[in-house]
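Proteins fold reproducibly. Take a sample protein:
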Amino acid sequence: MRHQAEMRAWLAQGKHGSMAYLAEHADLKADPSRLLEGAAAAIVVADLYATRNDEAGDVPDGHGRVARYARGGDYHKVMKKRLHTLCDELGARWPGARTRAFVDTAPVHERELALAAGLGWVGKHTLVIHPRFGSWMLLGGVLTTLELDPCEQEVADHCGSCTRCIDACPTDAITPYSVDASRCISYLTIERREPIPSELEHGMGEWLFGCDICQEVCPHNSPRMGDVGKANNAYATDRASFDLAEVMKWDEDARRAAFAKSAMKRAKLGMMKRNAVIAAGNAITRLGAEHEQSRRLLEALGGLADDAGEDGELRRLAAEALSRHRSTMG
């Protein structure tokens, strides 16, 4: 892998946050043949979950935003089903060939393989950008023992002097071609189990799960004429946002029902309520405490802070958010 040295330096600097599995699997990611003995090639695919001509969509006041990739069906299931079909077809046509499908749950460096396969270049926000389709895509593929012809030409970097993704990141997580995951809103809302540092709370805005800011501002995701691809209908938006007051009142059954067919199911109940508290505080700041939705959020924060059955850290967080706005309540 061409960026293996950079990856190890990134890990050494602790920029993977609490995602210890990234360090544990570093050697496996560096050598896919350790995941599939005799692996000689990788077939890499990209599945569009949105197109550059799609609107981001309005989110009602009092709601927490959801990243576009998580608004529809669970991509793990959608992509794996199709990839397993490909594996079966390869096995039928070339008996004896071995394969292994991967999305993002196996220790495979999909981005590096996608780069080598000519699916795009790695942007300054570290996501793969296709020159025509942009970056609204999910990566996966198949490792195989088949000897396949390699990609003849890789895609050149077209980021140039642009720094829009870097400038737009509210938590200053991005430097050119590197993301400090410990500051990234997607990491904070999806991966981090521990309390979120208070200095990062404001920058998280009203994001409840994930973040799209660096992609939304990218010129290579701007609308254009011609063929911009077609998003997979399996990812058609089901929920672009959730009512923050409702999330703060969720129990486990409510969380399971809301995420039944979604990639969001990996986020635990306590994490979602924590994210909702932070997003609610930021929403109240934006709307003003006298706004109708702010009053609903303040009521929900109060209920959470006073609930003796809730986690102590969550109660403290809700109480602090409530306290910041109490002086402006009517």
The first helix runs from residue 4 to 12. The radius of gyration is 21 Å.
